[in-house]
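Exercise 3.2. Students should predict the tertiary structure of the chain below and write it as structure tokens, then compare their answer with the key that follows.

Predict this chain's 3D structure.
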Amino acid sequence: MQASLPPRLAIRPRGPIDARVEVPGSKSITNRALLCAALARGESTLEGALESDDTQAMRDALAALGIPIDAAGRVWRVAGRAGALGVPSHPIDVRASGTTARFLTAAATLAPGPVVLDGTARMRERPIDDLVRALEGLGARVEILGRDGCPPVRTLGGGLEGGCAEIDARRSSQFVSALLLAAPYARREVRLRLVEGALVSRPYVDLTLRVMRDFGAECGFDGPGTLRVVAPRPYASGRHRIEPDASAAAYPFAAAAITGGRVRVPGFAADSIQADLALLGVLERMGCRVERRAAEIEVEGPPGDAGLSGVDVDMNAFPDAVLALAVVASFA
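Answer key:
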């Protein structure tokens, strides 16, 4: 039986868009900040954090590790325990959250006893063996309980010794971020060498380093293909503001580009390094005007008689902006 089509809806814009758009907080920053706050000593507050399936999975997993989190209002409060995680009596369900699974596989090694991390059927198909091998290289004890190098995984406790380890980051930069986030709690300095010097989605590792430094870590690249984290050096608690999500902001920016209008999105730091803000440079190449102020980004599309120019762009470093740009490209 053929389903009936919905009635046609005519959309007649009054003119080019001119709007100020509030965008939700960044998922990538929220989950990184949640983990840093959980490992810090004392209470941290997170303003503008994103409420989503991924961040709820991270919050619930941290709660299972003994970290009290109050997320009732716009300001979340995280009672950090200086790296002293608890040992849950049941497996932790990370659901379908890749960042939760990977970040906590590394962080759970800091617990004094075994921690099992499991997730959805799809999560059980996402390999994690590259991360586990690197953790073992830093002295952690981790077992893969799933098939073909996939979750569930069990960390056996005892912490991270530190030292130097190799990490294959050709499949996912989240493996590198996971190691970095736990590294300040190793017993000695941590150095990570990238296999073949390769690192996909480098901007997300830069974002991890930025969040870690905001919590007091001393970390960064130490020559080509090597990262260094000073340890032991616990995170410091404090008050942190989560930037808007650049992936979500891509859509109002796209609306400005298509209509020849103007959109302003507040909340971005002038030196923001979120990967998907690379879309702004692409929009400029297509004929848009982009202005980055101290706490706001403004995009204005070209006037109707000018139109958008086509571009050839490699979006490997900011893949989450592909859909928004695809819509814009259809008007070029």
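Discussion points: The chain has two domains: 90-241, 243-329. The mean pLDDT is 95.
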